[in-house]
Design goal:
It is built from nine helices and five strands; from the N terminus they run αααααααββαβαββ. With about 220 residues, the chain is of the alpha+beta class. The protein has a five-stranded mixed β-sheet with strand order 2-1-3-4-5, sandwiched between helices. The termini are far apart. The chain is elongated. β3 (about 170-175), α9 (about 185-200) and β4 form a beta-alpha-beta unit.
Length: about 220
Amino acid sequence: MSIADWPEGEQPREKLLLKGASALSDAELLAIFLRTGVKGRSAVDLARDLITRFGNFTRLFAASKKDFCEMHGVGQAKFVQLQAVLEMSQRALKEEMQRGDALNSPGAVRDYLQLLLGGRQQEVFLALFLDTQHCVIASEELFHGTLSQTSVYPREVVKRALHHNAAATIFAHNHPSGVAEPSQSDRLLTDALKQALALVDVRVLDHFIVAGARCLSFAERGMV
């Protein structure tokens, strides 16, 4: 049965208009994006296949073009569209952070970091540079590493903070393993960065660890 043959109130687009986007399942939301299915399978069926293949939206968004296009029924055009949607979402969240005090918008900060880092298969160390009002000046991916470790150089972080004339920073890195708990090296790195940045009067406000759908805050743990 095609989606067009479903009861009107259960068709994804009509359901969204009637009940709002939050009422839709992951597969129904993705089906609206896909628009059409393939012979013998509706857009919702195809969406379910994609979610089963990648596990969740985070991993789907992070999929390479090769992995995405290996799925029957989607191709390069859909991959390009998905990347455009992802980039628009990241920019919207970044704009929200830039409009006001990042500490008063913890949801936007977490959402931005999870969208950016949650599905990465390689460790990435990122810094948000903030002004005296804690508005975000810039977001930079400073270091990239292997699946097991990332080399982060405090001197380079200080140079970037001075470049942006930042008054404060928020750090984040991902754990591709899916374990959000900080390691001893994470704690030592945070302390080293705090000490180095204190010499140029730049505060470290927080350090987040992103592990899939989880996002741990050092500040909330009393570790900053």
